[in-house]
Amino acid sequence: MLSESTMGDPPRFLSSFFGVFKKGKSNGKKQTRFQNPVALPEEIHHQFSLPQIKAATNNFHRDLILGEGGFGTVYKGFFNDGKSAVVKRGKLESEPGASYKEFRTELLMLCQLRHQHLVPLIGFCFEMGEMILVYEYMGDMRNGTLPDRLYGSGYDPLPWKQRLEICIGAARGLHYLHTGAKRAIVHGNVKSGNILLDKKWGCKLSDFRTSKLRPRRSCKPKASERIDPLVQSNLAYLDPEYLETAQLEEKCDVYSFGVVLFEVLCARRPFVEHDGEMKTTTLVDLACKSIKGGTIYDMIDPYLKGRIAPECFKLFVDIAGSCTRVVGD
Questions:
Q1: Of 81, 84, 119, 137, which has fewest CB within 10 angstroms of its CB?
Q2: Of the listed ranges 162-171, 178-187, 303-312, the one predicted with least confidence
Q3: Which residues participate in the annotated binding site?
């Protein structure tokens, strides 16, 4: 248990909390209703009808769009109880296939999860080919996603303390996924863009499309196991070992989280261009080389220089490096 006195001391708090993340230390249209998603109390999940969703979003009006992603379009919805919600509408496809699998995965996972640093699921809709998830609306959402605040235009730089609190919140969310259930849950798509910030700067992990239960230790990897295309699309966050084994485990999340830590420290994107050329390298590669060369301080966000206690800086870098360390390095 972490004491209040420990939390008041950033280096001690980081050391005691992030220790768990050090890599290698942890052991079709005809269907109109989604039947029995999971046996949970009604207040945890609710099946909305398509007319309810259309009414809440003014028939998916473009003025209510909050954003668009690989899964589909996200709207702000207004329901009859006076509450606002985030309505995530999957892309309409003649052959749902993989999209249905992603939708079902995220739904089943979120129905079982309740944590202050995970986006809460309110309900879902599966009618007439529509695959819709409804989440709690996080305040006024003006703080957007983590990368918006790290290197988006028009924003003041995030203070170091605020960055630390965001990282600690994300770490707590991941720790819950990995240890808070009978079977560990692997997020599978940890990246700064999936860390949402509410109006009070509280962070929540989102996007559980690639999440899965960790394989039982007794299970042998299947020879036919394939790398998930959605996971592979985020190469800068991808654990190199996953490319070799295709086994999505907790350490994959740990590696990705380490990439996020370097983003937070350096305020740089995970892929780095070389002098405007097409050739790119990863932020992790640059950071690891700088650590070995003793020049990591030169890479950090200029705004943070002189604003981080030396012992805190060293510990943060050690944690990020430990998360992204590949076996054999």
A1: 81
A2: 178-187
A3: 88
